[in-house]
TrEMBL record:
Assigned keywords, A-Z: Membrane, Transmembrane, Transmembrane helix
UniProt keyword annotation of Transmembrane helix present: yes
Biased composition (Basic and acidic residues): 427-446
Domain Replicative helicase loading/DNA remodeling protein DnaB N-terminal winged helix: 9-253
Record-annotated DnaB/C C-terminal domain positions: 330-404
One family name in Pfam for this protein: WHD_DnaB
Membrane-crossing residue ranges in chain numbering: 33-51
Family: Belongs to the DnaB/DnaD family.
UniProt-annotated stretches for the region Disordered: 410-471
Record InterPro entries: DnaB/C_C, DnaD-like_sf, WHD_DnaB
Protein name: Uncharacterized protein
């Protein structure tokens, strides 16, 4: 980690300050809420800084080497731990040149109250990522200090003026003393909200998409914008995918997004996709480490060729990997001279949320239905049956999906065994899934490298081929 060495040296000195007193509850919050997010290294660092602050004097300035030896870490690990503390608002770092050396001042910031922490989208989502939703629910109940039902009780609490009736007369001659006390103690400001920006999320495009939903725009801007930016940056969700999640969570009676449903659908959708990506990319990540994007793309093509795929089939796979399902569907329907119906859009959205299949595999299902089989529209029962079959078989990559189609075509191309009159002979068991028994073989339609040419070629080949069942 060259950045760490360029910004920090073992001989650089530091001092530690606290923004306020650290209580026993702060240590509990650090351990139970912050530690899963920042890790044990960052927790060890803030504990070491707290100890250092207690024993530090005005004349005593330590070198970082002392802290590094105490923690038994190197500069890169120390720097990473410090960055984590800074990122969650637990530490502020300042530096200046002093005697040809860097002098750092570390100011330890107070922890958030548990209720504030758990209501913060960024921190609570990161915590869910680390320990799971069930554990976060347990923590929420542990830190819940809600007042029990007091319906049958009458409040008898005395006010301040009830107890200290003569206080106003005693304040008259104490203005100077009060001013000095206030000057010594700085009032604590409200903890700054963690900010997150998503420069890649196109809000103009996204707002144009959600206009069709006729939902409360003020809710999006005031209540959900920060959450949407968070999801975009943490989970890599684009505008079209975010629109789908919003659409699934709208209460059309009140024209508002149900925030809880929105967060749950994003969380479930992301983790369903993440599981498939882990399976799909486990070996690929090791191979691709250190390669440029061009080298990765070339390696991907060569691997597919060695697996036995033709250039046309590789083009199909790459198109399925790079185009969102709804865009993929709309492009095919447009080239066929048709349009995407509302029920088709709903079917694709249901596929994405229910099947757990990655977008690339869903695209293969769309291509198989509309191009290979020549269906005019997406049939929900058919594509759901295919998706169910593939999900059970753990088909999580477009090449595996394409192999399924190829194997199916080979199976269907085999001549059927002649029936005989011997009832006691065993009959051949049908090996095809139910959704595959209706149609005969159709040759796979090739796709070009560019999206527009790719779909034009599909339409051309589709219109020039005989329909299934023709001789």
């Amino acid at each position: 980690m060259n950045e760490a060495w360029s910004k920090l040296k073992p001989k650089d000195k530091f001092s530690v300050k606290k923004a306020q007193h650290v209580s026993e509850m702060d240590y509990v919050v650090l351990s139970m809420l912050y530690q899963p997010i920042i890790g044990v290294g960052a927790l060890a660092l803030i504990n070491a800084l707290l100890v250092e602050e207690k024993i530090e004097t005005a004349e005593r300035m330590q070198q970082h080497s002392v802290l590094l030896n105490q923690l038994d870490v190197g500069i890169p690990d120390f720097y990473m731990a410090r960055e984590k503390l800074e990122s969650v608002g637990l530490l502020k770092s300042f530096v200046k040149k002093l005697d040809n050396e860097n002098h750092f001042i570390y100011i330890i910031q107070p922890t958030l109250e548990p209720s504030v922490f758990l209501h913060d989208d960024i921190l609570s989502l990161l915590l869910i990522e680390k320990v799971g939703f069930q554990k976060v629910e347990e923590l929420s109940r542990f830190f819940d200090y809600s007042i029990p039902d007091m319906t049958d009780y009458v409040e008898v609490t005395r006010s301040f003026t009830d107890v200290f009736q003569s206080i106003s007369s005693r304040l008259g001659g104490k203005e100077e003393e009060l001013r000095k006390v206030k000057a010594i103690v700085t009032p604590r400001n409200k903890a700054p909200e963690l900010t997150i920006t998503s420069n890649q999320f196109d809000w103009l495009f996204f707002n144009s998409l959600i206009e069709s939903l006729h939902i409360d725009q003020n809710q999006i801007e005031v209540e959900l914008k920060r959450t949407i930016n968070l999801f975009s940056q943490l989970y890599g969700i684009n505008e079209l995918e975010m629109f789908d999640y919003i659409k699934q969570s709208v209460d059309y009676v009140n024209n508002r997004v149900i925030e809880k449903d929105f967060k749950q659908s994003v969380y479930k959708g992301y983790h369903s996709r993440k599981k498939q990506e882990i399976v799909e990319n486990k070996e690929e990540n090791n191979i691709n480490r250190g390669l440029s994007d061009t080298e990765k793309d070339q390696l991907r093509q060569n691997t597919l060729r060695l697996t036995g795929f033709s250039d046309e089939e590789i083009a199909v796979i790459q198109s399925c990997e790079t185009i969102p399902p709804l865009v993929f569907l709309k492009a095919i329907k447009k080239q066929k001279g048709g349009f995407v119906s509302f029920s088709e859009s709903q079917t694709i959205e249901n596929l994405k949320t229910q099947s757990g299949l990655p977008d690339s595999v869903i695209n293969v299902i769309i291509h198989y239905t509309l191009v290979v089989q020549g269906k005019p529209s997406i049939i929900q029962s058919l594509v759901m049956s295919i998706a169910n079959d593939w999900a059970q078989k753990k088909i999580f990559s477009p090449e595996d999906a394409l192999k399924q189609v190829q194997d199916l075509q080979k199976e269907r191309a085999k001549p059927k065994a002649k029936r005989n009159n011997y009832g006691n002979q065993s009959q051949r068991k049908e090996t095809l899934p139910d959704w595959a028994k209706e149609d005969v073989v159709r040759k796979e339609t090739p796709l070009s490298d560019e999206e527009t040419a790719f779909f034009q070629e599909q339409l051309k080949q589709l219109t020039n081929k005989p329909k299934e069942g023709d001789n």
